[in-house]
Amino acid sequence: MSGRKHSDASASKNPSAAAIPWRPTATRAMLEQRAVLLARARGFFADGGVLEVDTPMVVNAPVSDVNIHSALVDLGAQLTGAVQTVPAGSGSAEARRPFFLHTSPEYAMKRLLAAGSGDIYQICHVVRGFERGRFHNAEFTLVEWYRLGFTLDDLMSEVDALVRALLGPVASGHASERITYREAFLRELRIDPFTASLRELEEAARKSGFAGVGSEGPSDVPIAGGATSAGTAIPVGSATHSQRDELLDFLMGAVVGPRLGANALTFVHGYPATQAALARLDPNDPRAALRFELYCEGVELANGFHELASAAEQRARFDHDIAERRRAGLPAFPPDEFLLAALEAGLPECSGVALGFDRTLMLASGAKTIDEVLPFPTERA
What we know:
By secondary structure, the protein is an alpha+beta fold. The chain contains 10 helices and 13 strands. The protein has an 8-stranded mixed beta sheet with strand order 1-5-6-13-12-11-8-7, sandwiched between helices. It has a 3-stranded antiparallel beta sheet with strand order 2-4-3, with no helix packed on it. Helix 3 packs parallel to helix 9 and helix 8 (311-327) packs antiparallel against helix 9.
């Protein structure tokens, strides 16, 4: 009786406790499968002689990509000996500097590579703002690795092997397919992404519900070539290029991508040079980057690069990204000087890739939403 009275009293003090969604969204069986796949991934790399590393989640500089949003962290104090990173135009350099949660361990891992680490991998949580949906949670798990001397083809083969190992029986019956970005657009939309006019891209996007590009400009301008010299420079950018990339990103995300990987592991490579990010350009076609993405059942799983080693070119790309962020009214911060210094010291010839672990687990388990494979999505964290 005394225990019953105590329970009733507690409930009366906090009548809403029962309504608070404190329980995990993943079942015990799913947590077990998650643990099995994490162990399987580590075993895969151990067998390949790839070193596991663990780099900081709190970093000095945010990502510059206009499509990725870094979470800002206030540690409450100025740290001595740190590289100053304050918003452009914010005034005094003595202002307390911000830190950020990493959106990928890429910058830190490249510093390890430049310091002589050799082949490395990492399984870690990353955070990206403004991402929520069936396949998106702000915090998620990446498997990221770098292989010295690997070509993009070599890396695609290794990604194929790891994903098949993680998918297990689900991978049976899934063929392996490699197509170019251009071939994917021609196959699914009958549009050549390298030669189509803005007007053609706009029309295709409108048919799929696109509201409009973010900046004004002519609608009938063909692509300007994408690169100024083989494998080295991409253009600083213009409103026209920004519009093209916005439209191409929409079409890939809303139309082309969801149609890829039907009963297959489909690798799409040869992305436009303006979307090279941290990848080299193709010396045989400077319009294209040495970059790939992997799709399975319409879900993007991985993004890989033949890594750019030029500090000067990387700085130029960062400057371009920062200008684009300002154009879009997004926060703009100076680039990661630690990474640029490492590139100056010398990045070894390598290729690298990031694989979305949670999405891979979704496919392996048959989960319909990412919440089913996470103990606690952001709303319950």
